Amino acid sequence: MRIHRLVLEAIGPFPGRHEIDFDALATSGLFLLEGPTGAGKSTVIDAVVFALYGKVAGAEASDDRLHSDFAGPEAEPSVELTFSTAAGIFRIWRSPAYLRPKKRGGGFTQQNARARLWRLVAVGDEGEPVSAHVQEVGTELSRIVVLDRAQFTQTVVLPQGQFASFLRARPEDRRTVLQDVFGTEVYEQLQRTLAEMARDTRAAVERARAEVLASARSFAEAALHVTAARQETGAGHEEEEPRHAVPAEDETTRRVLDAAAGMDHRALCRITAEKRSSARRLVDVSAALRTQTRVAEERARTRLHAEEQLARLVERRRELLAEQEGLAARDGAVRSAAARLGLAGRAAAVAPVLDLFDRARRSLVEADEACERLDLGPDADLASLDDVDDLRAAHDAVTAELGSLSALVTLEDGLAARGTGLSDARAQHEADTLAYARAQDRLDQRPAARELLVETLSAFRDAGATHAEAQAAATNARARLTAATEAADRSRDLAAAEAEMADRAVAAVRAADAEHTARRRWVAGMAGALARELVPDAACPVCGSSEHPAPAELSPEHATEDEVEAATAVREAADEVLVRARTRVAGLREQLAGLHHLAGGLDVAAARSGLEDAERAAADAKAAIYRSAELEQELADHDAETARLTAELGKVQSALAVETERLEQLAARLREDQARCALACGPAGSVAERARALERRATAALALLDAILERRSATAARDDALAQLARALSETGLPDAETARRGALPADERTRLEQSVRRHESAVERVSAELAEPAVSSLTGNERPDVEAAAAAHAAAMADLADAAAAAREAELTATRVTDAAHRLETDLAAHTRDVEQAAPLLRTAALTNATDMTDMTLATYVLVRRFEDVVAAANDRLAEMSDGRYSLERIDEREGGQRSRRAGLGLQVQDHVTETPRDPRTLSGGETFYVSLCLALGLADVVRAEAGGVELGTLFVDEGFGSLDPATLDAVMAELGRLREGGRAVGIVSHVTELKDRIPERIEVRRTPDGASTLRVRC
């Protein structure tokens, strides 16, 4: 994974918008994130982690710190990150949840977190949207990045300072760290779970054993009941002692309990089979006895039923004869009721016509009374018109006159309102005329105001003409200030570089002197060195003689060739460093000269003062341009308003003329309508009063006409109903209407009489039929049934049957109890055997994982040991280079003091290959501790990354307190970090050490501003 670009806005101490181009920073493979403590270096890393995972880097850190307190409450905090993985190039934008001002009203409201994700073809293009939902974006990123947040923060930021304590920690503390890093707490949980399962399993086995023993006791008790029941059945039924007494524990009980205690399945099966067979034999004997007593009971029951049937027939015959006598006594009353029902039937046929006649007679009386009650009031003259046609003609004449007045009534009602409206319209017309005159006065004053605007606009046009020159001057002044600031920074860099160059020059001179001295000593001692190589009788390599009478002695100051070569290498290295220092000084001097030229020879203060003057002049010119534009707009608005007012007043003048003519027309029409209404009212006070009098007369005429017609109709209906009544009386044979009225019966009374007659007739028929039945007619009346004797015989048979059935039920219950107890015993024994067999693998596994057997190491410790070995191996790959092969790390099983335990295996020692002796990590020096700890940290990062699917990080941050390092150790660390950037990786160092600025030119500078906020600057 490689990080390409980061943009953050209103995040942490950064209120503004800042962009970091990591591709530009990573051109040399190494860059620095530096700044004072607390300035915001960690916020940059938090922004990267938040963009990828929606949470900041720290496990316990709160996302509330993301929204900058220095930005305004309306500023939206956001982070945008462009990165690439094996899945492609992506851009993620996130905004955390924060409180923003409400759009309506005061106060704040919660703005939820948001996120958007794009897939890019290349870094910098717009890309294709992937998702705009927070949850979907998180799901996609987990697939793209592969690493989870914990693994990412363990690999992207290496907290080396923590691993110095990890190097020196006790195995118990080291175990905690590894467990957190690799997430192996699942194995601890597995150990605890298996231990709990083992305890539960052992308890379950013990419970199963207890169930077997309890079932064995229950079976023994049931077996004793079988023995007692067999003895009782053999003794007969006459004994008076308790029939089901349980004897004391016998040999069977002892056998069952002994076999159960030893879990002897075979013996228990034999005993249960024996007792089941005995119980079945006991059931068979009891069933035979119950069958014999049931046959005797059935014979006694048959005799009892016969006697009871005879007694019922004798009683029934007696009851039927008595009922027949009672029915004969009621024959006369029933015949009289039947005659009364006949008369009521004929009266019911006449009843509808009789009711019709009565209603018609009442209607005629009511019509006569209505005519007498009719009050015509002022229109009493209508009563003299007896003819219906005359009444209709009078009504029609009144209605016609009333119709001609309806429109005038409406017209008369609106006359008053029309007069009031006309007065109001005339008053409004006068007010509009006055307003028109005033508006015309204001229009006449506008030309003078326009002349004043034109004069002001001419003055501001002249002031704004210099804006282009002022803007160019401000741009030049800004460039001079930037160059002056850069020149001040480069002056300090140049001073430091010149001092370093002087130091390198002294070091180079010293290295050359040392090489010269070594060569001189080597030349001076060359004769002695050659003499030491002479061999007797062998030719001298210088003179060729085989005799060596006075060989030279080796000088104590003699230098070997290795020493000379070493001095030469030191001198060459010093020269190379000096060349680089001189090159850097020359480059800084060239940059400084160019910056001084761009600054125009001004220092920072003078350049800043010139910029302020130029910006002020540009601002004044820009303000004049804005004011000129505003005045031009005001002039245009003034002319437009004048034109609008002129057109508007013309329209008002025309409208006033039209309104004057309309008011004159309204007044003329009002006078005409008043004259029409005065003519139409006649002798009445008004048209409305005249219309009400006509309406009252029309109503009276109509009421009188309706009353006369209703009386004629009632008379005709009465005559017709009288004729129908005469026909109905003739058809039914009734002499008159009064006889029909007296013969009528209410419906419920007729129903009661009909039911009484039918019940009597049905009873007579039923009694005759039942007396004729063969079973009753065959009786003579002399029969004498003996039910009591038959019942006593049946009761005795029932008692014998109950005793036999009880004995059979007891035998079946005892057999069932034995069978159930035997089955339960066998089931519990099989369950115990199954539990023991199933528990064995679990108990063995729990003993293995928790080291309760002969194993020395628990499962969790074993897993951590294997991971720790991988970490140590990865660390040794770097440690061999950093220590020149002197040191390597070894995992040991012992605890401190050489003791072993179940959690052994996480001990650590350093092997010194110079002395070939092991060393405690706490005995290492500060520099040795540093690079050994760094190797451990990087080794752990490699293992975590490999376990995450071999994810390769193209961008890596190393967070470490470099200020405590000496120069030699710092060189070693930088060399190792240089190895990290091999293969295209970009390595970022997070530090505030000043010396690292000279070593790493590419950096992100984080600085505080006077108001307490922070800003950052990228130098590439």
From TrEMBL:
Summary of subunit composition and partner proteins: Heterodimer of SbcC and SbcD.
Keyword field: Coiled coil, Exonuclease, Hydrolase, Nuclease
InterPro entries to which the protein is assigned, alphabetical: P-loop_NTPase (IPR027417), Rad50/SbcC_AAA (IPR038729)
SUPFAM superfamilies: P-loop containing nucleoside triphosphate hydrolases
Domain Rad50/SbcC-type AAA, residue spans: 5-189
GO biological process: double-strand break repair
Coiled coil region boundaries: 303-330, 604-676
Protein name: Nuclease SbcCD subunit C
Biased composition, class Basic and acidic residues, residue ranges: 235-252, 747-766
Source organism (scientific name): Georgenia muralis
Listed transmembrane segments: none
Pfam families: AAA_23, SbcC_Walker_B
Family: Belongs to the SMC family. SbcC subfamily.
Region of interest (Disordered), ranges: 230-252, 737-766
Signal peptide range: none
GO molecular function, one term: ATP hydrolysis activity
